[in-house]
Batch of 2 targets.
Target 1
Amino acid sequence: MIEFQHISKAIGGKQVLDKVSGRFVHGKVNLVIGSSGAGKSVLVKCIVGLIHADQGNILFDGTAFLDSATHDTIRIRREIGMLFQGGALFDSKNVEENVIFPLDVLTDMPKEAKLERVNFCLQRVGLANANKKMPSELSGGMQKRVGVARAIVHSPRYLFCDEPTSGLDARTGLLIDELIQELTYEYNITTTIVTHDMNTILFVGDHILFLEQAKNVWEGPSADIFHVEVAALKDFLFSSKLIKMIKK
Ligand SMILES: Nc1ncnc2c1ncn2[C@@H]1O[C@H](COP(=O)(O)OP(=O)(O)OP(=O)(O)O)[C@@H](O)[C@H]1O
Ligand SMILES: [Mg+2]
């Protein structure tokens, strides 16, 4: 389980996170939801250490995740997999080179073992034999799959996916969500998906953290979300006319 308390962050004089607390449950798919600009990406970047929070505590399975290069912090960093908003594949590297990258950086595995692991992950995300393709030759959905393969290649305990369905049609988006959910349960990963995709909120996930204007407004089981009497959450969910039609 990942627990975080009172995370605050100001960027350019603006309070982007204001004492945000919550938890991501072990072996489950946790969603961070909220409107554009609510602070979702910044929160996740603070939790994985890509952005330095001004204030707050972060515990990965009970171990404090600090800025300093302590033994524990280095170990936790190696156990994190990340799928970035927008994919962030290396355009000049082919699929295999993209996916092998974390193994090159984080491990001293022999080349052959690395390739075996890359092939296993590509097969697992439905991209067997795409090794030599360049990102520009792939559809949006296939690029996301490469991103997922790269995020899981070093067998992380913690997986963070920032807007994994953005830019995809609803059907392809759901396939990516389902793939992430399947991998989470299969490998017992603590997964966090950042999203404002209503399909994801309806069909995927176990635990939800709702952010609104830099604050965490609600946290709880996914099953409860459409029954909660929190005005900001209702406004967010029911701003979709489709959701209004099927859930009210
Ligand atoms: N590097 C930065 N420089 C300046 N402002 C930033 C930076 N990163 C984030 N912000 C600001 O922080 C706020 C929260 O940004 P964040 O990217 O976390 O939003 P988000 O909830 O992920 O939105 P979206 O759903 O559009 O991705 C926004 O107002 C944004 O403009
Ligand atoms: Mg974002």
Target 2
Amino acid sequence: MTTTFWPNAQHWSCEIPLNTPHPRLDVLEAHGVVRLRDLDFVIPAHEYLHLEYMDWKSGGDTNFAPIATADGELDCRGFWNADNEHTDKDARFTSNAALCPTIRDYVADIGVNFGRVRTIKLEPQNYDTAIRSFHRDDNNRFNPETDGWVVRSWLELTDNPDSYMLLMDCGSDGLPDRSTEVRVPLHRGSRFVVDTQRLWHVVVHNGDAPRYALITSLESGPALDLWIANNAQ
Ligand SMILES: [Fe+2]
């Protein structure tokens, strides 16, 4: 497929650490992503439609509703700032959490140390538009190298069978390697855990209405390994 845009070595994602000593999960070693069984219950739509959304652009025309943040305040920034070198874990629920008890309990029941929890609202974007937002995340800033590597879980809240998350591993040059492309389908209830610091990622959303998903930062370790095993496809 030809496209008018492709990341080059000057892309900011190339500055983000890739290989570190942090403990990682064996289940993610091969591909950096593992799909889970579809959620077997429905999250009520009002729990994500009626949250307080903030204007925060990441991966396209997006808005985020913070459900857990570093200090419990409604804030879309990363956990860190000049005054607070907070790792993306040990998060506290925000005022939005009371508006989405099913989502809040789903996250708490994972039983894993979680960081940022947000629902994302993404406007439609085709492949050529989405690829301009292809990027890697900075999930492990200030995370001690003896602590588990922070990864992300995804839960698709709306039903978008024609949309997918585009994933690619890094090639030897640190840029996306097309031969490693994976497309994760985004029908309602689709769930997966992905190392978004390792994999380039963006959602291609071929719909005509916004899509919503739940994104949660999780610390790698035995608890996450167990949850993945218990929810594997
Ligand atoms: Fe990202």
